[in-house]
Predict the structure.
Amino acid sequence: MTDRRTAILEAAARTIARRGVRGLRTEELATEAGVSTALVYYHFKDRAGILRHTLEFITHRAKQHSLAPQGTDDPLDPRELLAMALQLEFQDLPEVRENTTAWGELRASAIFEPDLREVLATASAAWVRHVAGLLTLARPTASTAELAASAERLTALREGLDARRLSGVLRPDHARELLGEAIEVELAHLTAHARP
Amino acid sequence: MTDRRTAILEAAARTIARRGVRGLRTEELATEAGVSTALVYYHFKDRAGILRHTLEFITHRAKQHSLAPQGTDDPLDPRELLAMALQLEFQDLPEVRENTTAWGELRASAIFEPDLREVLATASAAWVRHVAGLLTLARPTASTAELAASAERLTALREGLDARRLSGVLRPDHARELLGEAIEVELAHLTAHARP
DNA sequence: GTCTATAACGGGATAGAC
DNA sequence: GTCTATCCCGTTATAGAC
């Protein structure tokens, strides 16, 4: 909220979450941010620049949310930490929901816009490591490779469930339930494959 | 190839797979199909109509591929049937790859275009039932609810992996490997939860 | 059913002042 | 850094002939 540049990025995340990347209009974005379209181009050069910086912005914001989730005074056990990290989007915080929707949109856009791929790959790798770390707390005896594979499956599953939920294929509570079960299934798998 | 209408739909699937929904231009589509833009609008009314009918078209085409996969003379065991159904996109058939990419694009579009949701939901439900049927062959003693949940998780995971692979986050062979392991993990889970 | 030609418009991007 | 005003191009969609 301090500088205009940040206000534009916040507005971009909101607008992409509301209209999608295809529905993003520079003018609507500018109005939403309370600035002129010219200023948007001054800060971000062109449409591709807007998308790239917005992806960086929501990545940064998501990191803060997952490191300091709201409403957690008591220490949690590893399984709860994992569930919270993966089911973050079911919190009521608007920014969190925006992040989920915008992330899905920008990831889908990256298929046809190579500019976004690098940022996306870096952010994804960091996220998967984060989840692998939480899994390690829950299953310290599992092999590193199995922990990494479980983290990648849970991440991809979460994204797939988000996409299905947002497109109306899956009901929100059902998506959440399926993800919760998947965590249990993966934890059971890691127990069965503990390192000797 | 027989009628022009079908040629347009085939061209639409190809073009969406190549350029995405956002990159779909009526004129490029018409050229690809070897017809005029006016004819496209004559058959499908408007842009939304093109998208909706293309979604129906690839759904229909995918059904045929999964019911009669190529290169399968010998009977397969249930586990192999499952792997083939879920990893269909790793076949070399161009139409199959087109279907996967276009499906992801159209599902993502459905988040902001309610017109697509009904077709999408129907197709998804049929697909999940198909996978649940294959799982039943492999684990006849598992409960119906657990079989359905596994089918939904594997479907969402496959779509999530596809999205990550297509956006360059995951290498193709790695995506395939993760899906193969997931099948094993779910089968083990269903064994552990067999109906008494 | 299918074409050619074109209307109509949305929206990305910039010039230039302050 | 920020605005107002505007250009101009690409794209959707249609009119009308065959």
